[in-house]
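In response to reviewer comment 3 from the previous cycle, which asked for concrete evidence that the modeling workflow produces usable outputs, we include below a single protein chain processed end to end. The sequence was submitted unchanged, and the resulting structure tokens are shown without manual editing.
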Amino acid sequence: MKPNPVLKKLGYSDDDKLVIIHTDDIGMCQASLDAFADLWDFGTISSGATMVPCPWFPATAEWCRAHPDVDMGVHATLTSEWDTYRWSPISTVDRASGFFDDEGFFHRMAAPIQAVADLDFVRVEVQAQYDRALQFGIDPTHIDAHMLTILHPRLLPAYIETATKAKVPFMLPRNSAEMATWMGYETQVAEGLGELIEQVEAQGVPLVDRFDSLPLDDPEDHIGLTKKILAGLEPGITYLVLHPSTDTPELRAICPDWPSRVANYQAMMSREVKDFIKNEGIQVIGYKTLRDLLRGE
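The workflow returned the following structure tokens.
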């Protein structure tokens, strides 16, 4: 993979290692917002993204209005994955959209959306989520993808069009072709993603190089895992995704993976991780930096 052109535009060298420490699912429930607020104040995260269709989005927007310098994006949401805690599209109730499962909510998994969702409805829904974030006083720094659902080649145009119209960067790793191969997509699809990356970079769109995350299936030693990931950063921009939440009865009732979400939070609230980031000289940036670059600010 060629060096990321963003590095030199930001004043770094091709060998420098940058990381966006990003929190997903903000506003999914109260525990996700409380964790984000704590971590933002503590200083170990640099970005987050809110789920506009979810119940705690209005409270997230209220917090963002009170903290206008926050780096908050829109977590484009097309799935509703939990058993008894659900949400639906905000733009339509039309079953022809392909959005709805038998219970009347978004499908729980990505595959049905990727297979049958009507692209025009996806365009309208993602735009509606972005517009609602603006309406509620959030100044979005980027758009990214809940459960990576919209990163499917068939749905990508809706994602890219919304971000392009808004003049915000969209999360699409530069190694997407490699990811597509790893995920079992056809060779033609992987090659198409590679061509797409080249096209959007030629247009000056800043992209991250790779995607990494703390696990949601194992709550053990997230401090050690975080330090290992940060110590092993490669040249370019790594997008490190976390799903932190405070430990609440609501969270435990919603999420079978709640121990890992709490472990994410506790690791990033630890002085050990904060000192490690500082002492290792790790270059942490937010998505606002990439948005300002895209807008020439």
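Residues 88 and 104 are 7 Å apart (CA to CA). We consider this sufficient to address the reviewer's concern, and the full set will be provided in the supplementary archive.
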